[in-house]
Amino acid sequence: MTGPVVHTYRAANAGLWVNSYLVETEAGVLVFDTSLLISDIEALRARLAALKKPLLAIFLTHPHPDHFNGVSALVRGKEVPVYAARSVAQVIEESADAKRAQWSPTYGTEWPAETYYPNTPLSDKDEVRLDGISVTVRELGPGESHADSYFLVSAGDDRPVAFIGDLAFHGMHPYTNDGHSAAWLATLDILARELVGIPTLYPGHGGPASPAVFAAQRRYLLYYRELVRRLAGGQPRLPDVASEELEVGMRAFLPDAPLTWMIGLGADAVAAELAGGTAGGQAS
Fold first, then answer.
1. Are residues 180 and 142 in contact, defined by beta-carbon separation less than 8 angstroms?
2. How many beta carbons lie within 10 A of that of residue 210, not counting itself?
3. Other CB atoms within 10 Å distance of the CB of residue 151
4. Is this prediction's pTM over 0.70?
5. Please, are residues 127 and 150 in contact by the beta-carbon 8 Å criterion?
6. Per-position DSSP letters for 230-260, written without gaps between them
7. Pairing of strands 120-122, 201-203
8. Distances from the Cα of 243 to the Cα of 218, 219, 253, 268, 273, angstroms
9. How far apart are CA 167 and CA 178, in angstroms?
10. Measured distance CA(176)–CA(169) in Å, rounded
């Protein structure tokens, strides 16, 4: 083995097509984000076991359950560092119980019964070194979620890669229900500068991408915000009669893309944001 190998486990449709990444090194495996539902979490656990190497660490990009729900099953009695930016760790601790109460009636036994919280918080630009791999966190604040970050990973002379979580959805309709679309747009400008030289980005949803994915996500958000602004007419909620028009417009903007139910989910949060109301919806 000449260098780390990135393995991807992509959840099924019910699990939001979320990606979990297993970075295989000479001596073990680093995991970047996990799955939402127990069926996908167990499949991810089996994928990890098939590598026949110890789990060295887990890294969490942001505090949405489709990225942190699987930590407990992967750790399962082991002493494993679970890294996250401090703001990410804080929001997970503050929101996990509420998310379980919100979504357990929908998902039933597919929703994990417990949450394993990050045990090793990181400050912005902290570096972790494991088995010859350098992992540097970039803490970015609210954007797609209430607390976003990415991890820059490098090994020796190999070109670095970045695990960007949900800072850009690649070819899928994004989640906007946390109501920070303006901050997200500002973050995308930062990312376009910071990661311009990184050839491979691993997003939370969709296939590997180039830095051009940030411009694509920016175009989507600008169009979505403009449609919501027009349809809401300055009100903090979208009228029911306008919901279909919003969905038709965004489906036309991004044809044949998965996660179309996200289009309507975030409409009121973005309408409230544009109207000057309190941002923040129910995170998935």
1. yes
2. 13
3. 27
4. yes
5. no
6. HHHTT-SS--HHHHHHHHHHHHHHSTT-S-T
7. unpaired
8. 22, 20, 15, 10, 17
9. 13
10. 11
- Domain segments of the chain as ranges: 5-174+182-211
CA 111 to chain centre: 18
Cα separations in angstroms, 158 against 29, 134, 154, 244:
18, 11, 7, 48
What radius of gyration, in Å, describes the C-alpha atoms of the chain? 18
Class of CATH domain 5-174+182-211: alpha beta
Cα–Cα distance for residue pair 131/56, rounded to 1 Å: 9
Nearest to 199 by CA among 235, 148, 161: 161
- List, as one string, the DSSP characters of 165-205: ETSS-SSSPPP-TTS-HHHHHHHHHHHHHHTTT-S-EEESB
Per-residue pLDDT of the chain (284 residues; tens, 9 = 90+): 668 999 999 999 999 999 999 999 999 999 999 999 999 999 999 999 999 999 999 999 999 999 999 999 999 989 999 999 999 999 999 999 999 999 999 999 999 999 999 999 999 999 999 999 999 999 999 999 999 999 999 998 889 999 999 999 999 999 999 999 999 999 999 999 999 999 999 999 999 999 999 999 999 999 999 999 999 999 999 999 999 999 999 999 999 999 999 999 999 999 999 999 554 444 34
CA distance 164 to 196: 13
Residue 23: strand, helix, or coil? strand
What does the block give as tokens for 160? 């670095």
